[in-house]
Amino acid sequence: MMLKIIRRLLMSILFILAFGTTYLAVSGVEAKDLSNWVNENHENSLKQLGLTLKSIQQKKAESMSGPVKPSKSLEEAFDWKQYPAHKVTATGYTAGPESTGKHPDDPQYGLTYSGVKVKRDLYSTVAADPSVFPIGTILFIPDYGYGVVADTGSAIKGSRLDLYYETVKDVYSNWGKKTLDVYVIKKGNGSVTEAELLKLNENKSMQVFRNQYKTVKE
User: Fold this and answer.
1) Quick one: which of 155, 149, 117 has its CA closest to 133?
2) From CA 119, how far away is CA 148, in angstroms rounded?
3) pLDDT tens-digit profile of 145-196?
4) What count of other Cβ atoms lies within 10 Å of the Cβ of residue 149?
5) Per-residue pLDDT for 25 more than 80?
6) I need a surface site. Which of 76, 82, 126, 152 has the fewest CB within 10 A?
7) Which of 60, 43, 45, 44 is nearest to 1 (CA)?
8) Distance between CA atoms of 148 and 196, rounded to whole angstroms?
9) Nearest in space to 135 (alpha carbons), one of 122, 111, 151, 120
10) Using an 8 Å Cβ cutoff, are 149 and 128 in contact?
11) How far apart are CA 72 and CA 50, in angstroms?
12) pLDDT tens digit string along 66-89?
């Protein structure tokens, strides 16, 4: 691509020189006037080449820099008040023994009540009371992101939520315990699958927000 652009510019310059020589022989235009005219066109050609190179370099840099950062956070990007609000007390949990009593060598380690694996992503798995938020319910939780109800817990009754984080450190540094309004985006039907979670997290229109919440290692 670059060689093609340079070749075209050189051909243009040679054409200008050839045209100028012919015009000089026919019209008697002074050599200095022709020289000035050629120099001006040569400078314009170089400027054009410089702008083209700069544009190509910028596009290359953008393509290597990864996803474009959103101008707004997910909290600011939508009018969440259009959805039903529900006040809850939310805590954080992990897949480890401190929260579930399970160790990594347990066959059920990292598996939720619904059968899907715990996940911290744009759409993360959360635990709730199914009588309040049925399995599969999609919530928007300010400062956490989307939560898909996939788990339950003996202490998670009524208006309580448990939000999944990868480590205990993440729980304490990023959340702790909060009482806040969450927004019901979609009420669940009692089930959720890995394929449904994958589809939500791979939604192309939402990728600009994904790194805002995603911490899972791939």
Assistant:
1) 149
2) 10
3) 999 999 999 999 999 999 999 999 999 999 999 999 999 999 999 999 999 9
4) 26
5) no
6) 82
7) 60
8) 10
9) 151
10) yes
11) 34
12) 545 556 889 998 999 999 999 999
68: three-class secondary structure by DSSP:
coil
Please state whether beta strands 160-164 and 85-93 pair in parallel, antiparallel, or not at all (unpaired).
parallel
Instruction: Kindly state the tokens that stand for 92.
Output: 């954080």
Query: With contact defined as beta carbons under 8 Å apart, do 128 and 159 qualify?
Result: no
Q: Are 175 and 144 in contact (CB under 8 A)?
A: yes
Return the higher-pLDDT residue of 193 and 14: 193
What's the confidence (pLDDT) of residue 212?
76
Q: What Å distances lie between residue 200 and 10, 19, 178, CA to CA? A: 52, 62, 26
Task: Please give the structure tokens belonging to residue 35.
Answer: 């020289």
How far is the C-alpha of 43 from the C-alpha of 30, rounded, in Å?
20
Place of tokens 């609000």: 85
- Cα 105 from Cα 165, distance rounded (Å): 19
- Which amino acid is residue 74, in one-letter code? L
Q: What CA–CA distance (Å, rounded) separates 128 from 201?
A: 20
